[in-house]
Specification:
heterodimer; A: 302 residues; alpha/beta; Rossmann fold; four-stranded antiparallel beta sheet; 29% strand; B: 323 residues; two-stranded antiparallel sheet; 4 strands; globular
């Protein structure tokens, strides 16, 4: 049984009268990719800033690898690599100079590590160029290279897909996946993109208006709903038939949604078919993360 | 800590702040040297005694006209006394050679130029990190914030020292082309004081020029470090480099004008800018307000710098870093 890499314990941040983050708690296990999902302005970045000690929580605390971020800042942050918001690096220095700069802020990081992370981030060929000349995607990758310099146990990324093209996003996803399965790296990813979180993460917390609404495994979010969708030629007759069998039906855009368990589905299909209703389409509905998200946030746009 | 200071030194160099400052120094020193050279050419045949006498007469006339401006009159009175003091001992004052240029640089540049250049160096060490967004990366590495600020301060102090040395070295090199480069042993008098209307010679000391120069540079160096501390504080207070540099410039230039225009406003003597030209005061220029002996100026600067550093560390180590 391994202990969590990160524990956020009842974090709140109040500025003046305004509560930005309220009672946020979660844990991240080694090797886990943890998604932090919420619309813009939900308190994601504030929470991240509290995780890495940029902002002092009003109440609550953060523990990384057993060290309190506020009281044992150095011991805690030694285990973390992070990108907060945008990957801002020193634009007037080259990629290599940036890596060397941050390597000097960590113990036991040497020339070999710089070569290793440059390789990982696929930047070896542009390392001598000034960061000013990099594209946003390259800066994003350089940011990740900096974060991985000292082989951290926890990687914290804020909106890592920003500025990346679809191929870049896929590479990033594969890289994170590889690091988490091979090296046991725990990854915390914030995002407002559902699809991204769905593809990347093991577990997800949905944050809205500063509070966590729900934390669950991404697999759980996919759980099949007890509902089937039918498209037929004669909706009215089909509704009457299904209702006579005792199942509630809802109609949406000519599609019938019938609340039935999996084992009852063949009965309904058989009944409709024998009564001469032509079935074009019958499918068990999968509730997507998006629907869960909209459910949880009360329909707020993402 | 050495590694952290290396980082800060590298960033300062890469931002080209130091290069700009040195170029400005070189330009100004070339101009000063050229001026001295022209002056020397035009006065080649004349006897320095006669010339000094002429200068004294000119100052006396100016003083009669300058009664409306007491500060100016006071400084003329002291200058006349100083030149007369040299003349009485048959020693040539302010001999235009390279060592003299170097010595004079401490006074000329210490007045406004060097404090301004140091402010340019120091004013954005913290604010630039915020403006460029790099503070979030800098402060999420396993290094306590006070160590980061200390490394920044150390780098600024280092470059302040280098800037002063560069000024002296540049001054000597440039003026050596046009002027005599020997003369470090020439007897020099410093320590003229004005008490009320009379010049006080009690504290006047004769030193060889090189010793006198060392003392002047030591004082100047001290004053500049204090300026640097205040600039670093402004840099932590303001999130934009323009605001911190602007405030520092306004304080320096505005303060200098203020102290010259309002000699009656006694509270002005507690403003750090009044105490800045330490090398001037050491030579014998009167401070703008009564009751500002050298030791007072030195302590005043120390108090300001200490307060500035307390504010800077307090803010930097506690502040929440938002976007």
């Amino acid at each position: 049984m391994s202990s969590p890499v990160l524990i956020a314990h009842h974090l709140s941040k109040t500025i003046g009268e305004k509560t930005i983050v309220s009672d946020v708690s979660f844990e991240i296990e080694p090797g886990e990719v943890f998604g932090f999902l919420g619309p813009n302005g939900a308190g994601k970045t504030t929470t991240i800033r509290m995780l890495v000690g940029l902002i002092r929580p009003s109440t609550g605390n953060v523990t990384i690898c057993g060290h309190d971020v506020e009281r044992e800042f150095e011991a805690a942050l030694r285990n973390v690599g992070c990108i907060v918001e945008t990957p801002d690096l020193y634009r007037f220095m080259s990629g290599r100079e940036n890596l060397e700069h941050f390597a000097r802020m960590r113990r036991g990081v040497g020339e070999a590590d710089i070569a290793r992370v440059a390789e990982l981030a696929m930047l070896s060929h542009r390392l001598e160029d000034k960061v000013r000349t990099y594209s946003l995607g390259m800066r994003q990758r350089l940011g990740i290279a900096v974060a991985l310099l000292s082989r951290p146990k926890l990687l914290i990324l804020d909106e890592p897909a920003n500025g990346l093209d679809p191929a870049g996003i896929r590479e990033m996803r594969n890289l994170l996946r590889r690091l988490s399965t091979d090296d046991g790296l725990a990854v915390f990813v914030s995002s407002h993109l559902l699809a991204e979180v769905e593809l990347m993460c093991d577990r997800v917390a949905i944050i809205h208006r500063g509070t966590i609404l729900e934390t669950s495994p991404v697999q759980g979010l996919h759980a099949h709903a007890p509902e089937m969708e039918f498209r037929v030629d004669d909706a009215a007759r089909a509704i009457a038939l299904v209702e006579s069998m005792g199942f509630p039906v809802a109609v949406n855009d000519g599609t019938l949604s019938i609340e039935i368990a999996e084992e009852q589905a063949p009965d309904v299909v058989l009944r409709l078919a024998t009564e001469g209703v032509r079935i074009f389409h019958a499918q068990r509905r999968i509730r997507t993360l998006e629907e869960r998200f909209i459910e949880a946030t009360g329909g707020e746009t993402v | 800590m050495i590694d952290l200071i290396r980082n800060e030194v590298l960033k300062l160099l890469r931002r080209r702040r130091f290069t700009i400052a040195v170029v400005i120094l070189a330009v100004i020193l070339s101009a000063v040297t050229y001026g001295q050279y022209r002056q020397l050419q035009s006065a080649k045949d004349g006897d320095w005694r006669a010339r000094t006498q002429q200068t004294i007469v000119r100052y006396q006339n100016a003083m009669r006209r300058a009664q409306a401006n007491p500060t100016w009159a006071r400084s003329l009175r002291l200058e006349i006394a100083r030149l007369q003091y040299y003349l009485d001992r048959d020693i040539q004052p302010d001999k235009p050679n390279a060592p003299y240029i170097v010595r004079a640089f401490a006074n000329i540049a210490g007045f406004l130029l060097l404090p301004l250049l140091v402010s340019v160096l120091a004013s954005d060490v913290v604010s630039a990190e915020h403006a460029e967004g790099t503070d979030k990366l800098l402060l999420t590495h396993p290094v306590r914030r006070w160590r980061i600020l200390t490394s920044k301060l150390a780098a600024v102090f280092l470059f302040t020292t280098l800037l002063l040395l560069c000024g002296a070295l540049l001054g000597f090199t440039i003026s050596s082309f046009a002027l005599e480069s020997r003369g470090w042993g020439a007897p020099t008098f410093s320590g003229f004081r004005l008490t009320g209307e009379t010049v006080d010679f009690a504290a006047v000391r004769q030193l060889p020029l090189w010793q006198d120069t060392l003392i002047a540079y030591g004082l100047e160096w001290y004053a500049l470090l204090m300026v640097a501390s205040i600039a670093v504080m402004l840099s932590t207070i303001f999130r934009s480099s323009a605001a911190s540099i602007g405030t520092m410039m306004a304080a320096l230039i505005g303060g200098t004008i203020l102290t010259r225009l309002t000699p009656d406003w006694i509270a002005g003597k507690y403003f750090f800018v009044s105490a800045l030209p330490l090398a001037d005061y050491y030579t014998g220029q009167p401070p703008p307000y009564e009751g500002m002996p050298l030791l007072f100026c030195i302590s005043l600067l120390a108090v300001w710098a200490a307060a500035a550093l307390i504010v800077a560390y307090g803010l930097f180590t506690r502040r929440d870093v938002f976007g």
